[in-house]
Each structure stands twice: as structure tokens, then as C-alpha cells.
Amino acid sequence: MDWIRSQEEIESELFQIEQSFFNSMVSYDKAIDYCQNVLEFYRAMVVAQGFPDEATEIQFFKKDKPFLFGLLLQYTHQLSFELEFPNISYGRNEDIVNEKIEEVTTFLSNHKDVVLYLELQSESFDSQFFLRKNKGLFIHPGHHNYSFDSEFCTSHDGLIANILGYQGFLQFLQLKLSTTMPYFQTPIPKIIWTQSKIALTELGFALFYSGAFNHGNASLKSIIQLLEKVTGTDLGDYHHTAIRIRNRSNRTKFMDKLKISLQHWMADLDD
């Protein structure tokens, strides 16, 4: 099914949209439009072509559609927040962010069984959750204003999208809260990245695909942003850098160096 866009392609398009507008609310609105357009394209293809087998259908409604729909809901939450609270600053407005965080965590807690199902990469209920023929067994009502025809829904793909959307929105709120807090009295040691940017990008992609953060639910973008903040390094268009990494003769050059360095350290201890 070559019409399905990869997560990397979608994140790259959304990154370009966010970088194209100084006003965050405008960028969120444009990102919502992008997600809606791709979802409508998906819907048309599913209705017209269907799926070659049940495994492909499960993959689409468990991974592909919820990933994109979750981003749509995340940007919708962020846009609504910015419209309602445009001038968040430290002090009274800190309570507003905490209240929103409590709302999000309550939703995730209420659906912790499904969150755990995703985190453990379970498959035991996939046929019940992500095949359209079984959607009558249980239908999650959803917490959004978007609806799709019956040929484009299963019992749980909307719930998964809501979970992913709220998880992304939670990261947004936590970042918002951290920027409203006063600086700590104890200074944070300054760490300077002295390897290449391509090496740091390689590390970021390795951390993302290994599922090292949030039980594998942290987005690639959030991991890259974390590395940029910690090291003070601007990684720019990291998706383009990833293409360069893939085209190298040794695709895991920096990972190999880390492994060899650690092995040398342990060998020295053994001597």
C-alpha cells in the first residue's frame, strides 16, 4: 500500500509548516489543515481500494491512521489552548497549565489499560480492536469533533488517536510549564557537544527507534528537541540529515564508535 505516508515524511512536513510561520497559532492551524487533507486522502483510498488482507488493515487502524489523527488532535488541543490563554507567564497562570495537565493525565489514567496495551506492543486483541467488521463489539465515543464514515473506522482507532493526541499535548503543556517557572538557583553545568551534528542526529534517531523514552511513545521531534536543548546544538532539517546517514557506506558510524568505546572501557576494567 504505497499510498500510506511514513511517519518520518509526515513529521518532516509538519516540521516545515511549523518553521514557516512565526505565529504559533497560524502554524497549528496550517498543521491541522495538512493532517485533515491527508486523512481525507486516506479515507478515499480505503473506501476505494480496501485492504489486501487483515494484517494490513490492522496495521493501518492500529498505527497509520491513529498516528496522523493523533497529531491532528494534538495540534487542535494546542491551538485551543493558545486561543484561550495567549499570555501564559509565571505566577497565576501557572495554575492554568497545571489544571490542563490534570485533565490530560486523568484521561490517560482512565484509559491506562489501552495505554499499557500500546506500550507493551500487545497484539492479543488486535482483531477485535482494529478490524472494521468487529467494530460493533465496542465503539469508543471519542473526545473530538471529527467523524468518519463506517468504512474508515474501527472500535478503537479513534481511542488510540485520542491517547496519542493527549500524550503529545501533555508534552506541550509540560514544556509550557517549564518556561513559566523561575530559573533554579543552582546553575546547570554547561555541556558542549563536540562531535558532528550528523553524529548527534544519528544518536537521536537511535534513541527514537529503540523506544528509549516514554516506553516508545515519545515523538522523534521531542527527542531531537531535547538533544538540541541539552547540547545547545541546532540540528536543522534532521530528516534531510537522516537521508545522508542512510546513504553512507557505514550507516551506524557513531553508534559503532559508542559501542567500541564502551567495550574498551569494560575490557580495561577486566585487565
Number of domains: 2
* Distance N to C terminus: 54 Å
Number of DSSP-assigned strands: 0
The outline comes out as globular
Strand % is under 5%
Classify the secondary structure makeup into a structural class.
mainly alpha
Radius of gyration of CA atoms, rounded to a whole number: 21 Å
Overall pLDDT confidence: 86
Helix content: 55-70%
Can you summarize the main beta sheet? none
Order of helices and strands: HHHHHHHHHHH
- Can you tell me the residue ranges where pLDDT is under 50 for at least 5 consecutive residues? none
What's the tally of helices?
11
Notes on the structure:
It comes from Arenibacter algicola. This protein has 271 residues and is an all-alpha fold. The protein has two domains: 7-182, no CATH class; 186-271, no CATH class. Helix content is 66%, strand content 0%. The radius of gyration is 21 Å and the shape is globular.
